[in-house]
Amino acid sequence: MSLSQEPTRAERYRAVRASLRSLLESESDWIAALATIACELHHAFPYYDWTGFYRVVEPEWLVIGPYQGGHGCLRIPFSRGVCGAAARTRQSQLVEDVESRADHIACSSSTRSELVVPVLSPSREVLAVLDVDSDQLAAFTAEDQRELEAICQDLAARFPHGERSR
Asked: Domain tally for the chain?
């Protein structure tokens, strides 16, 4: 990369993953890890408008965890919204235009696109979801999805039981 060029998406993700490996190397606290991941991602990508985790702390409910950006929804049932769909199906949800999703929960009126990735235990129990929102249409790509899925897999490998890991 030349000095006059912005880093590519792939270069930014490589830098974030390297930073996260270093920052979380000896971390044993789930919430500290979530906060660190949200912060690193949010500040690395100009199109990330809201970045954070919703944790599973009771059956079929997501509760807001560490995040960066404006206020988020405090609680989301598995039965509603893009975050709920990711938790319910255990599959990432890439939404280019949130207005196209009848079940979208508008925590912020400025959100135009969203990507939600589940954090799954080795037994495929949902521990949390990573939610990233943008105020731009179609801000997220398959590359974002792959990279965030890898970050969530690394997180689940370090904390296989989420908040109950250590």
From this structure: 1
